[in-house]
Write a structure and sequence with these properties.
The structure is a homotrimer of 414-residue chains.
Chain A (H helix, E strand, L loop, with lengths): L9 H20 E3 L7 H7 L9 H23 L7 H28 L5 E3 L10 H15 L16 H23 L6 H27 L6 E2 H6 L3 H5 L10 H30 L7 H21 L3 H4 L1 H7 L11 H31 L18 E2 L6 H12 L1 H9 L1
Parallel strand pairs in A: 1-2
Helix pairs in contact in A: 1-4, 3-4, 3-6, 5-11, 5-14, 6-7, 7-10, 10-11, 11-14
GO molecular function (chains A, B, C): ammonium channel activity
Subcellular location (chains A, B, C): Cell membrane
Protein name (chains A, B, C): Ammonium transporter AmtB-like domain-containing protein
Chain lengths: 414, 414, 414
Amino acid sequence: MLKNTIMRWKLPLVCFIWETAMIVLFGVFARYDIGADPHWSEYKKANNISSDSENDFYYRYPSFQDVHVMIFVGFGFLMTFLKKYGFGSVSFNFLLAAFGVQWAILMQGWLHTFEGGKIHVSVIDAGGSMTIHTFGAYFGLTVAWILHRRNLSKSSSNEGSNYQADLFSMIGTLFLWMYWPSFNSAVSNTGDAQHRAALNTYCSLAASVLTTVAISSLTNKSGKLSMVHIQNATLAGGVAVGTAAEMYLTMYGALIVGFICGIVSTLGYVYLSPFLSSKLGLHDTCGINNLHGMPGIIGGIVGAVTAACATVGVYTLDGMNEMFRFTGDFAGRSPSTQGGYQAAGIFVSLAFAFVGGTIVGLILKLPIWGEPSDENCFVDVVYWELPEEEPDDVEAAKQYVTHAPDQFKEINKD
Amino acid sequence: MLKNTIMRWKLPLVCFIWETAMIVLFGVFARYDIGADPHWSEYKKANNISSDSENDFYYRYPSFQDVHVMIFVGFGFLMTFLKKYGFGSVSFNFLLAAFGVQWAILMQGWLHTFEGGKIHVSVIDAGGSMTIHTFGAYFGLTVAWILHRRNLSKSSSNEGSNYQADLFSMIGTLFLWMYWPSFNSAVSNTGDAQHRAALNTYCSLAASVLTTVAISSLTNKSGKLSMVHIQNATLAGGVAVGTAAEMYLTMYGALIVGFICGIVSTLGYVYLSPFLSSKLGLHDTCGINNLHGMPGIIGGIVGAVTAACATVGVYTLDGMNEMFRFTGDFAGRSPSTQGGYQAAGIFVSLAFAFVGGTIVGLILKLPIWGEPSDENCFVDVVYWELPEEEPDDVEAAKQYVTHAPDQFKEINKD
Amino acid sequence: MLKNTIMRWKLPLVCFIWETAMIVLFGVFARYDIGADPHWSEYKKANNISSDSENDFYYRYPSFQDVHVMIFVGFGFLMTFLKKYGFGSVSFNFLLAAFGVQWAILMQGWLHTFEGGKIHVSVIDAGGSMTIHTFGAYFGLTVAWILHRRNLSKSSSNEGSNYQADLFSMIGTLFLWMYWPSFNSAVSNTGDAQHRAALNTYCSLAASVLTTVAISSLTNKSGKLSMVHIQNATLAGGVAVGTAAEMYLTMYGALIVGFICGIVSTLGYVYLSPFLSSKLGLHDTCGINNLHGMPGIIGGIVGAVTAACATVGVYTLDGMNEMFRFTGDFAGRSPSTQGGYQAAGIFVSLAFAFVGGTIVGLILKLPIWGEPSDENCFVDVVYWELPEEEPDDVEAAKQYVTHAPDQFKEINKD
């Protein structure tokens, strides 16, 4: 069984084929957008742009970098809470993100800027779609459910944190928390919408922290706090405010959303995850359902309601049309219709997540993937050359035994 | 005594009441400022603003994010140097900061933008007031002095670092050091003042590093360096240059300030802290007096002198009036008067710190707060569910004993 | 021998003399540039600048901060992979960087803005010169080669990582990786060149990650990955694209550069470093040759070829002249000549590196520097007061022995 885990040919082959494909696809399709092309100077002149500060780079690059810190440091370190899976957490996240960003450039190009057989790459649109959390969470959970192992409990001693691992994980949490306002505002229209998206996210996140701490203490019989709640549920407010962040949610509205999601998410860790694991065979190691799933659904509802309540008085007519893209084919759509479509969108993404997750789960169940045995889940040693740990403990035990023989004699006298 | 530490009802109650109060107060008072309001487009037109880049968001958001990294990652991790208090350090800092930012939005709104019963919230003013370090340090030290425990030495084995904890702490130090120029310049006037504040802070910080290393080595009988100095005293230059950062301090002036403060702060750790603890009963675990207290006072004096020396030739008339707010009621005030007022301000903030600290200290002495017993200070286990550590050592000892029985026999022969 | 390592007078003396020299030199030479001077307002009026956003501070400060994170957190933590040298890694990097930035301000001032006996300091130019990696790497390697110790193997048990140290090191890797686009674009011309430099660097880095993982797995007999490759070779793409980053390299060109350098760098760690160490006596602890040396040379060649292929059709005439500085004395130079000069530049920097490294190496061989003995390399204890580690293991061993005396009796029965 362990033999399966040897990745010596599979992993390099996947990496080389993928990257070669990327080079070919970029060669065929990708071109610098005008802001990154030497003809920018001519474009500036032709369009009466007086300053380089109008180059999209200066508007988008700081947010883009913040979102990168979230993806690479934030998610990478958040997952190091597993005491024996730190190398895998931070490095496989790194590998997948490096895959992902290249693929994202192509996909977004094909969807948005495909013209004359080419796509035009500017500063990369780093995400924040309405349904990313809900879709991602339930897609992944469906895959996990299908891949469920009856005997995973053999690895249960590995599936936990230790003191250092929990501190590494907090590096991830804090960078995610701090830069979530950049994430939710990264793709907003410039000006007031972007400004508002950052403010709303910030308020919601702050409220989450307080209710997470409250519920964490309240659900422990000694009132003690749990690090897994602080590491995760404090971020739920950022997820839930995603859809409505750039809308006129109001700041106290954002606080209420964060207030509720801190509670729901922490309760999920305390009660729902153990229930799903023992009763439904859904093993959710890092609590995706609590951090992205439920808060994502709440966020979808909040977004739909906030959209349905939009008025011209609040947004101005131009503002409303720009915010909800009531232009082109959608000109004249009413806010209540928009709210209905957004609500329907939640169900559509859930359906896609379940169907897609089932298909991918079944593919991953094929016995060709080199997965670790039931005893070897959550441990780096399967895929990593680990540094030799010095036998400090043995050395210490030896010294103790050598230097305190009297006690041993005493023990052995009995 | 230990029973007191159960926070199961107290902590959740405080969190819920506080956050509910925030929601109500935000609902009543807080409104989006024009830069975050959909009427921004109309405002732009009415005020002949041609580009979204003039929205305050684009001037302030990067500095705002830097300051957030300082507060959440910087201070949170700086305090993880305590080997058994890492969870508390990083998480209680997180909780207090999430409390604090909401309160700060309201307070600053009431003080600065209260109009027609509402406050107008834009990108948040993240601080940097003239007296924040001095006031904060001596307020906290007064509280600590009143709360002094006669038998704290029972916890002395807990009050220390270990190798990993000191490295985690350096994450905090470095992010504080790097972003201190953003902190000191965050609330400066845009343009040359902000530019100058960043430059001066940077020079002062760099000089602090060198003199900290020098004194750390010089005061150790083997010339060995101490991590606690590197973690803290290297930042003293940033504190001390706070008041004068945006003034025409000159770069060599900033270097001199940093030079002196690296020395004073490190000497404080080596000689003053132990003296205060043993003779005056003032126990200053993380050396607040050395990092914020004394450098804050030095900074106040530097600021007063630099202000008193201001001339129209250096600043231009407009520049001087703008820098020192010689407008409205203060029109026509002279630099030397300004310097005198700033010097007086140091004493006023010290007085407020001692009086306020005494009151709060006495309140915290009331036996209702669930403080840990004298044996249980500086340890997470009082307030946290800790991960079960694997009995690696025991296991190692067992294996050693099992596999090397000869030595044991030998021992027991004696 | 150990006596030599006492730095009590040498280190403080060096710090004080250096910092005092800095204060004097800054006092004599350094002045605020116009963007940081109170006369900025008058300058704006005189030059028809309408907005403070045109102050260089707002263009350069975010990149400047990113590069600082790379220098202080990135390189500082990357080097903490040595399990017993974490304090030295992060702190000596901190000290040298604080030295370095002050020196850099002066040097760049003398070279670029010296006028009327003064230099004018604005936001600091953080580097990225064409030959920085190649020169730095081979300079350092030459020094290391001259300082080679025959008996370094006595320290070989210290020269390695452990699980926690490798995770700390990944903090460094990720911040370097994420901000490398800022580093390569920090000193580019504003507008399209800066935009393009960030994009190209990003593509090259992403490709490096995939081929690094591939080769790391492929060269291990069980297909297991090695952390040292992930920590270092993933960055090789950023080094190699440095020279050509702002040129019209095309994105698939950048992907190809990263693809190749991930392979070359990882192979260097696997095969070349052990060979150089055992055969040539060149001991390269952190693989400088693999991360900066070889990728730097590749980058120089890529830059020379890309420059030689430049055409007016791609760059526009103005763009080409601005990109390659074909102005003043260089007006009319052809791209192919430029490419030739750049290729020659590689050899010039290699020559300077070898000669300079030899001289410095010989100076460092003088017996006045207090270097550690052969047994004490790679350990903090020589230069640092280390925290006392609690005898947890001993305690655990003791408890085990006390609570399980039966087994001991059994052992002793034999």
